Amino acid sequence: MNLQKIKLIFSIAVQGLKTNKGRTILTTIGIMIGIATIVIVLTAGRGLEKFILKEIETFGADTIEVEVKIPSVSDTEMAASIIGGAEVTTLTVDDFEAMKDLPNVADYYAALLGQYKSVYKERTDRSMVYAISPSVVNIDKELKLEEGRFFSERENSGQARVAVLGSEVKKSLFDGENPVGQTIKMNQISFKVIGVVEPRGGSAFFNYDEMIYVPLNTGQKQLLGVDHVMFGFLSMDDTTRADETVADLNSLLRRRHGLPPNDPDKDDFRVTSMQEALEIVGTVTFGMTLLVLAIAGISLVVGGVGIMNIMYLSVVERTREIGLRKAIGAANGTIQLQFLVEAILITALGGIMGIVLGSAIIIIIDIVSQLQGFDFDMTITIDAILIGFASAITFGILFGLYPARKASELSPVDALRYE
């Protein structure tokens, strides 16, 4: 087929689409939405996965998290229960001391969260209180001081009323004034500010900059009035023995809590290595991506059915034209290619518009998330664009082939007689 014939087929296809602008636009919108969804899902999914993995990695690949868990309930039910005020009080500092004695466990820190109104002179702030072991500075490498110092083990043991502020708390309470050495009040109790943490931003779990760090014993006894902790992290000597260490921790805690040795559903705690957490995140994000891509696929199928109906209707409306072209020598393949090109043009146009729309939405999401303190780093990749455009072309061919073939099989005599 020479270039002149290809230009003619393309010109006829374009003219056919212009003749039915309304139907063409409606079909293009269906394809556009499907392709935009594919671009958004692939880009946002990768950005979210990178964000979560980065947050997990801040705790260190050599760490293991131990947290409380409500036995025999799903994570969703447990989250709802905790929001509703349920507490699991069986995890204690003594548990962490016992875990520290296990082989391959180097150190630990335990923690507890609460919320109080903090006051300095006439200024107030609703702050998250982070009662935590002083050893956190040895394990959490992202925790760095901007001013002053962190509290010591001696201050923790003596329940000293000292506090280290997050950068946002400093800004709210002191407004440019140096907070180190000043006294703030929480729950009517005075705390001396001894340090300020460098800005760290939000994470998938909470905003470190809006926290007030206090010694764990002080938080337990003087603020929250409890003996338990909510979670903690342990560091390992050898990361290659993570699975073995997790198994040892599970066995130890089950013995200490009087739980069955081989019934994880009864556990009132959860032990997760960072390597295991990374694998879980990868599995979850992959599953979510597949699910939303399936929904996008449904949108494309709907758009494809629309293309098939429009092309079939176009064949019916242009039956006499087809008969005339075949009567003057147009081959079946030429007729089929003409209508197939029309279908591909619709989906290609929808694909381009979908890529532009999806990219614009991704940019907006990225800007808004950064304004909220979350760096998802949503970069639109070439493969997301290529997959989106290839999907559009593929659906054009799949759903345009049948009406194009029906057009090519029309008898010239019958077509010319069609009214």
Explain the overall architecture.
The protein is an alpha+beta fold and 419 residues long. The chain has two domains: 3-55 and 279-417, no CATH class; 70-267, no CATH class. The protein contains 14 helices and ten strands. The protein has a six-stranded mixed β-barrel with strand order 2-3-8-5-7-6. Helix 10 runs antiparallel to helix 12. The mean pLDDT is 81.
Question: Would you summarize the structure shown here?
Answer:
This protein has 419 residues and is of the alpha+beta class. It is built from 14 helices and ten strands.
Distance between the termini: 32 Å
Helix/strand structural class: alpha+beta
**Helix percentage range:** 55-70%
Described by strand count, sense and barrel closure, the largest sheet is: 6 strands, mixed, barrel
Q: SSE order in H/E notation?
A: HHEHHEEHEHEHEEEHEHEHHHHH
Shape: elongated
**Spatial arrangement of strands, main beta sheet:** 2-3-8-5-7-6
Count of DSSP E strands?
Answer: 10
Strand coverage percent: 15-25%
Mean pLDDT: 81
User: How many helical stretches?
Assistant: 14
Report Rg.
Answer: 32 Å
Domain module count: 2
Q: Could you name the ranges where pLDDT drops below 50 across 5 or more consecutive residues?
A: none
Please write out the topology:
Elements: H1 3-19, H2 21-57, E1 63-68, H3 75-83, H4 93-100, E2 105-120, E3 123-132, H5 136-139, E4 145-148, H6 153-157, E5 162-165, H7 167-174, E6 183-186, E7 189-197, E8 211-215, H8 216-224, E9 231-236, H9 242-256, E10 269-273, H10 274-317, H11 319-327, H12 332-371, H13 382-408, H14 412-417
Parallel strand pairs: 3-8, 5-7
Antiparallel strand pairs: 1-9, 1-10, 2-3, 2-6, 2-9, 4-7, 5-8, 6-7
